[in-house]
Recover the amino acids of this structure.
């Protein structure tokens, strides 16, 4: 019994610290194929170990929004959905629905300002985690999402949630549809502000409009290598490849990752197929992979290291959702089109697994 109490105290302390040091480094991107189709993906960073699971949700599944004062909005899923949930909460934090709409929640610290909960708005209120799930459950296109927000059909209220610390987690959201349209939704000053997101990139704070303005500081960047320079008859050649990108920010702050993600996306060569684009998504996001220890906070001598626990890709063309984890770089796939959308059951699979290594000794052949 004493060991159990000590373990519970440790978990509680981790939860409190998690609210301050977790999920500050998520990066989202969008890539295109040669025929104009799009796929998207993201990294998922946390400062402490967080249990994540893959989920599949059928149509007509009943959801009830959470608030600090009881039930919020009640709604049913119009579309089958898949994606990632955290802890035991069956609301999808990142995912895709059967119409090819994708949505992800990203940390938005010091900027997120939710709508205060009142008796008048409780019936359309959702917690910060519920909101992402509601979008996937209710809509097929970006335009439908924009219209619902413009019509004031929903509010996000500050809600304390299991696993997310003693305060409401601060989020903003990115949405992509099958056509390639994208928007960013941010709770600013108690209102939901919607930005068109033509490039399809998102990171964390500051607000999306600030990041887009900041790109003007990097208009000199180019994928083409710089030419040689001659001074007083002496020619100086570039030292190596990549000189056109000299000066691109390389740290892991949200502004730097945003600039770097845009550079990778706009210079990526269009893939032949959507699956090829999915593979490119993982290659691009490898550049934002944070190993344990590189980004850290130290509190009372204890290290809280922000690291990439999960990387996901979404293909709205085939309705396939992909992911890999920190401990297992094997890419796993869930095919939503093969899921029974009329099932009465939610399906769940914990994402944790251990990396295997393939031994190729017996595959080598004598050289000819």
């Amino acid at each position: 019994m004493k060991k159990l109490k000590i373990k519970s105290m440790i978990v509680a302390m981790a939860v409190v610290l998690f609210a301050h040091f977790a999920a500050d480094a998520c990066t989202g991107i969008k890539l295109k194929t040669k025929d104009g189709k799009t796929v998207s993906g993201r990294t998922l960073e946390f400062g402490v170990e967080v249990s994540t699971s893959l989920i599949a949700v059928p149509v007509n599944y009943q959801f009830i929004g959470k608030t600090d004062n009881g039930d919020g909005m009640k709604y049913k899923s119009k579309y089958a959905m898949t994606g990632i949930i955290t802890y035991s909460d069956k609301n999808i934090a990142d995912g895709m629905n059967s119409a090819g709409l994708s949505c992800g929640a990203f940390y938005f610290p010091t900027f997120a300002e939710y709508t205060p909960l009142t008796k008048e708005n409780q019936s359309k209120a959702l917690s910060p985690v519920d909101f992402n799930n509601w979008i996937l459950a209710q809509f097929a296109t970006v335009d439908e999402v924009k219209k619902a927000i413009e019509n004031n059909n929903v509010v996000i209220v500050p809600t304390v949630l299991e696993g997310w610390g003693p305060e409401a987690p601060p989020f903003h959201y990115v949405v992509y549809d099958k056509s390639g349209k994208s928007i960013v939704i941010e709770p600013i000053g108690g209102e939901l502000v919607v930005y068109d997101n033509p490039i399809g990139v998102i990171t964390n704070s500051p607000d999306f409009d600030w990041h887009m303005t900041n790109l003007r500081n990097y208009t000199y960047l180019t994928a083409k290598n710089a030419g040689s320079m001659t001074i007083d008859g002496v020619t100086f050649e570039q030292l190596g490849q990549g000189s056109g990108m000299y000066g691109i920010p390389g740290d892991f702050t949200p502004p730097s990752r945003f600039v770097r993600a845009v550079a990778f996306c706009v210079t990526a060569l269009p893939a032949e197929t959507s699956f090829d684009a999915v593979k490119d998504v993982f290659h691009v996001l490898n550049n934002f992979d944070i190993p344990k220890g590189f980004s850290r906070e130290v509190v009372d001598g204890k290290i809280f290291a922000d690291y990439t626990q999960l990387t996901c890709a979404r293909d709205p063309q085939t309705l396939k959702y992909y992911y890999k984890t920190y401990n297992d770089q094997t890419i796993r796939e869930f095919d939503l089109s093969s899921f029974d959308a009329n099932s009465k059951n939610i399906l769940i699979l914990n994402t944790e697994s251990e990396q295997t290594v393939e031994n190729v000794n017996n595959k080598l052949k004598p050289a000819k």
About this structure: The longest helix spans residues 2-21. The radius of gyration is 22 Å. The helical segments are 2-21, 128-138, 142-150, 208-214, 254-267, 274-286.
